[in-house]
Design a protein that fits this description.
This protein is an alpha+beta fold and 555 residues long. It has ten helices and 31 strands. Helix content is 23%, strand content 33%. The two termini are 56 Å apart.
């Protein structure tokens, strides 16, 4: 059947709680950016975004059953562990969970299933134990029991059939294993599930022991007589979550095609490396290089919801990682910001620029640009591009100044560099976060720096112009300790001008006469002086803004 291009696949985002974790799901379409998008489901948790597809009916059993897993059970005063076991070394079988009692301890975990083989009890292997020894170990394992289990799919139909017969007859009439002598291995149980017929759970052969580990079911049986007592409980629940899957043919079951960790990940609507904005679609890229592929949404409102939810989770995780890193640093060395930006890079053979992802970090007095995020504290010391924030200018690019279709751009110009770095982010909110963090970083770095002196020429003589966080501008000549030639507070500066090379004019207002006094200087590293002067002035403005100060203290 032909599917029209206009047919909508996107569904509203659904929210549920899974083991006290908020999960959001919804249908979208996903592609590799080249082929036709296919239906898929997104599953968003706090830490990951998974792309899922519906599994065929034969794959409806949970994948977790194919591997060992650890499950913690709290023994109940009434009901004990709430499960029964079969098997043992004397039967050449593993210790198998043969039934799980409804609403009792094992059932309440939601992680134990009929057909699970118990490999360890509180870390102790029981795979070579006879049945009674396994029973004693389980019964004496304490109130908090950690089971290491592995699911054997072949056993489930066999155990389920026995349990169903017990439930129907309210007793177990000889739960026996017909072939455990035939080959001496697990293959006999596999054969029971696939090739042998059973009537009323009774087959000819040697009995296989079952023991209930529920306080309400006192069977310790090793023979058919004891099986009747074990099976007489009417409140037993022979089927578990696992056996529900056995009969779940036709139900929808979703499997993860790929999963992207959200820690230090980023969301982008642009075609990778370009300024081309994808219509109604986005991509999530993880720290490990994983990508969701291109996620297509027919509904713009739903796409906006996904973008906000995913971005909020990424920001939350990154902020958490920032706090963990900052435990290792003193106040003046802490991280103010971490996040992804995209840097425009000009190619010699092309008239346009391509974009490369960079991980921007503002830490102490440093502006750092990583190719890949630092995954630990040691990684912060291995940054390939490091600038000093008090010698670097930050400027938001006006919309009319954008060089291409990328939005939310800014410039970072380091003193002495050939030109500015042209950077962009995905949203205006992220741009505002960077701008606020930059101002905070400047304040922190200037306070830590205290003062900075530049060699200048004043009236033909060599002097030192000092920018001091506490006192302002001062010009000194001769030996250190001599009184300054002149000094002004930062608040007295009324303006400045320069020739772009070495000459600088500073215009101060006299505090008494209110007259403007101009001081002419020359400096061979004029740009460095101007950038540092701008940093000190920005820090002063920020320090007297109560709203800004409170926002800094809150972070």
């Amino acid at each position: 059947m032909r599917v029209e291009a206009s047919e909508k696949m996107t569904t509203p985002i659904e929210e549920m709680i899974d083991e006290k974790v908020k999960i959001r799901t919804g249908m979208v379409r996903v592609s590799d950016g080249k082929t036709r998008p296919e239906p898929a489901r997104l599953r968003l948790s706090m830490e990951t975004l998974a792309v899922q597809k519906e599994a065929p009916p034969r794959e409806t059993r949970p994948a977790m059953h194919a591997r060992e897993r650890m499950v913690q059970i709290t023994r109940q005063k009434v009901g004990g562990l709430g499960l029964s076991i079969k098997g043992g070394a004397e039967h050449k079988l593993p210790i198998l969970i043969s039934r799980i009692y409804k609403d009792q301890a094992a059932d309440q975990t939601g992680q134990l299933f009929v057909g699970d083989a118990v490999i360890k009890v509180n870390g102790e292997y029981i795979t070579a134990c006879p049945h009674d020894d396994a029973v004693n170990i389980l019964r004496n394992a304490g109130d908090l029991v950690v089971l290491t289990v592995k699911h054997y799919r072949a056993a489930t139909p066999f155990l389920q059939k026995q349990a169903d017969a017990t439930s129907d007859n309210e007793s177990i009439a000889g739960d026996e294993h017909p072939q455990h002598h035939a080959n001496g291995g697990w293959g006999s149980v596999a054969g029971l599930g696939d090739n042998h017929n059973h009537d009323n759970a009774s087959v000819k052969g040697t009995p296989v022991t079952e023991t209930s580990l529920s306080a309400n079911h006192n069977s310790l049986g090793r023979n058919d007589d004891c099986w009747s007592r074990a099976g007489s409980a009417t409140n037993s629940r022979p089927s578990s979550v696992a056996s529900d899957y056995v009969g779940s043919i036709g139900r929808k079951h979703w499997v993860d095609i790929l999963t992207v960790p959200l820690m230090m990940a980023y969301v982008t609507r642009y075609v990778f490396g370009t300024d081309k904005l994808r219509p109604n679609s986005f991509e999530v890229r993880g720290i490990n290089g994983a990508s969701t592929g291109v996620i297509h949404c027919d509904d713009l409102a739903i796409m906006s919801q996904w973008l906000k939810l995913i971005t909020d989770n990424i920001v939350g995780l990154t902020n958490l990682q920032t706090k963990l890193y900052n435990r290792n640093f003193a106040a003046g060395e802490r991280i103010e910001y971490m996040g992804w930006v995209h840097e425009g890079v000009l190619n010699n053979n092309q008239p346009w620029q391509t974009y490369k992802p960079r991980f921007l970090t503002l830490k102490g007095t440093d502006v750092m640009l990583f190719d890949t995020p630092p995954v630990n504290v040691a990684g912060l010391s291995k940054c390939p591009y490091v600038l000093k924030v008090y010698q670097t200018m930050f400027r938001v690019v006006k919309e009319s100044e954008n060089v291409d279709w990328r939005q939310h751009c800014f410039l970072v110009q380091a003193s002495g560099a050939a030109g500015p770095r042209y950077l962009s982010v995905e949203t205006r909110q992220e741009l505002l976060r960077i701008e606020s963090a930059w101002t905070a970083a400047i304040l922190t770095s200037v306070i830590k720096l205290g003062k900075k002196t530049f060699t200048v020429s004043y009236e033909g003589r060599t002097a030192g112009l000092t920018l001091d966080w506490s006192s302002g501008f001062s010009l000194n000549e001769g030996a250190p300790g001599n009184p300054p030639v002149w000094a002004y507070r930062f608040s007295q500066l009324r303006g400045s001008s320069d020739d772009g090379k070495s000459k600088l004019k500073l215009h101060f207002q006299d505090s008494e006469t209110r007259a403007i006094e101009t001081k002419e200087l020359e400096c061979q590293i004029l740009q460095s002086l101007l950038f540092c002067m701008h940093a000190f002035l920005t820090a002063k403005v920020a320090s007297v803004d109560p709203a800004f100060l409170s926002s800094i203290q809150a972070t």
